[in-house]
Amino acid sequence: MLALGAVPAAAQTSDLVSHSAFRVCADPANDPMSMQDGSGYENRLAELIAAKLELPVRYTWYPMATGFIRNTLKAGKCDVVMGYAQGHELVLNSNHYMTSAYVLVVPADGPLADVTELSDPRLQGRSIGIVAGSPPATHMAKNGLIGKARPYRLVVDRRHESPAVDMLDDLEAGEIAAAVLWGPIAGPLVKRDHPGLKATPLLKEAAFPKLFYRITMGVRRGEKVWQRKLNSLIRRNQDEIDALLAEAGVPLITNMGDGVMEVGQ
């Protein structure tokens, strides 16, 4: 029985959330998503949400690697991670604000420009860049593409090394024939730095693992009041969020991963 005057658990946990700032945990060098100079699209998303809350943004910077959540969100140093895959057990997820997919990046005027799936025979025998251990590597192995693949490291300190940037530079230099990357990283980098390349979402890879993911904001487990507040903000401002992401070059797809979403149509 709840004693008179006792405070419900939800209210107790929500008291951990700052009322004076929108406190964000972020990687300081995760280009193009979060950057300490504020140039990432997750920085702009944070500014948008903070404006709706009428609060300033305050960052806790920490490299996105082992211990990130433990040393930031769980330690109470901040209240939200702007981009987190739906269903991850370390955080309580908000409703998703975007769905995106891995992409195949190739020269826009080359022989692979209209390839849309990894089973395409035109990819056979070619050197394809892939982040080692990422979900598309399994599909590449099933399609016989791993033998000549060029692997790039998965876990790095992006203040000193950027596999995605290196892969796209190698592609533009002709050292590899194609690159397979997470769309919310590849799309903005291609739009900003590599106009001669083309990124195509891999929507036809039916086998496991899936190559599309719903992206949420992550909050501390148990923070249901804060989660519901963010859910409401996402729902009421989805059009602005879509426009921000599309402008950045993020490939947005339908919730079921079966088509490209046309923003503003």
Automatic annotation (TrEMBL):
Keyword list, A-Z: Plasmid, Signal
Coiled-coil regions, chain positions: none
Keyword Iron-sulfur: no
Ranges for domain Solute-binding protein family 3/N-terminal: 21-248
Pfam family, one: SBP_bac_3
InterPro entries for the chain: Quinoprotein_dehydrogenase, Solute-binding_3/MltF_N
NCBIfam families, sorted: ABC_peri_MoxJ_2
Name assigned to this protein: Amino acid ABC transporter substrate-binding protein, PAAT family
Organism: Salipiger abyssi
